[in-house]
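**Archive record**
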Amino acid sequence: MANFEQILRHRPHYAEFIFTKTFRHRGEVLGFPPNYQGKSFTTDERGYRHTVFNGQTMSVAEIVRGGRYGIVLGTSRAFASGVAGNHNTIPSLLSERFGFPFANVSLPHASTRNLFSLLYPMMMRPRSRPAAVVQFTTGDLTGLCYTSHADPIFGSPNPKQLKTIEEGPTVLVEPERALEDMLSFTSLWTRAIADLCRRAGVPMVIPHDTSFFEKRHPSDREIECELGKPVYRYERRWFSNHKKFAERFHNRRAGLAERLKVPLAGPGATNDLGFIDEFHYDEDGTKAMASYIGDALEPLLNR
């Protein structure tokens, strides 16, 4: 993925995210190491990245047990992999803007089905429901592009499952069929999350986020770091699939948001954001996405 040496030359802290993110199985999903204490980021007892609010470092459990709070559901992009400082994440930036903490409920390679299962128990506590939910959906696209597999109900396998699947009796389907299965999957579980929020009276925003591959004009640094250039065989498959499937995924997400009457927040199919690697925003890109999301949330919270 890109030119690792050049990325490290500009961002030495990036190594901490690469070398310490030994993903742990949490049932069917992967999680970041719990109780990690590093120079660039820290995690709580469940492996979620801490949020910084009013100078205090807060775990997801502390935020949910407190007063008014919001939730950001997502993958490593919402976790802010590669961005140093817990205060520079989207949940922390939203916390600063709105005056109450946002929990960073993010897992690497999470899908909307995984995120639904994390949100559901929080919604079953009427006295401590969130004030707002931000739900990233790009894990569904990443799962398909990385593995070339998708199921319309259960989604795509995580990376650690891929070798077992490829060595087993699984029948491979054509890429177009896998894409249709993923689009059905993302529609099903995005609707489920939106319905859960609507029934609870909780406003929801879907980030219309994107990747380096949809960027209009790469920066000099991104060119120097060779973003978009595959190094390993799995990256050739991953990047090629993304280029083929991203437009239809963006269109499906936009159509879903319109039908669900949920605001989309972000640049969408094209962007001018900053990236550390092909799929993770840099500090400026993270701030820009937080601003997009905040602008979409503000009128919902002021009703």
Notes: The chain has a mean pLDDT of 91.
